[in-house]
């Protein structure tokens, strides 16, 4: 029994050691993967630093021949110019939008005024037609008036003749 017990304990210990060993190997593999990823990242960053080192040299040369005393001043000036450029673009966009709105309003106003002008032209045409009709009516009314005056003159003359005749008869 003791041997079985010892064997069981030894087996459990061996299983635990295998599990620990597998866990350690797994951790080692993960650590190796992380190390490889970090090495790749380090290499990329080194390549990038080397690639951009010409800019550092360029900025140093710019500082030597310009009014700036330090590279930070050049970078600060650049950032200021970028911000100003962005602000100008936004301002330009706002002005463009305002201009488009003004154009739309102007177009609407022009359409309204054209409609109003068209309405006045139609009204003018109607008035002109009425005027022409009135002109043509004037001739017929003048003719009727002349006829009425002639008739009145005849009747007045006839009345005068009748009055004279009656007066003569009376006398």
Automatic annotation (TrEMBL):
The gene is Ccdc42. Residues 12-48, 110-137 form a coiled coil. Residues 1-64 form the DUF4200 domain. This is CCD42 protein. GO terms for biological process: spermatid development. It comes from the Eukaryota. InterPro entries: CFAP_domain-containing, DUF4200. GO terms for cellular component: cytoskeleton. Pfam families: DUF4200. It comes from Stercorarius parasiticus. The keyword Membrane does not apply. Keywords: Coiled coil.
């Amino acid at each position: 029994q003791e041997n079985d017990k010892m064997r069981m304990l030894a087996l459990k210990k061996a299983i635990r050691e295998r599990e620990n060993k597998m866990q350690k190997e797994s951790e080692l593999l993960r650590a190796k993967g992380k190390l490889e990823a970090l090495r790749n990242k380090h290499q990329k960053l080194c390549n990038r630093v080397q690639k951009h080192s010409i800019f550092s040299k360029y900025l140093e040369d710019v500082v030597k021949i310009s009014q700036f005393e330090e590279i930070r001043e050049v970078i600060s000036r650049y950032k200021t110019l970028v911000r100003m450029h962005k602000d100008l673009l936004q301002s330009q966009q706002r002005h463009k939008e305002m201009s488009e709105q003004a154009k739309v309003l102007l177009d609407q106003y022009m359409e309204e005024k054209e409609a109003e002008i068209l309405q006045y032209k139609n009204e003018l045409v109607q008035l002109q037609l009425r005027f022409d009709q009135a002109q043509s009516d004037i001739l017929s009314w003048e003719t009727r008036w002349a006829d009425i005056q002639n008739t009145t003159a005849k009747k007045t003359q006839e009345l005068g003749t009748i009055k004279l005749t009656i007066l003569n008869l009376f006398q």
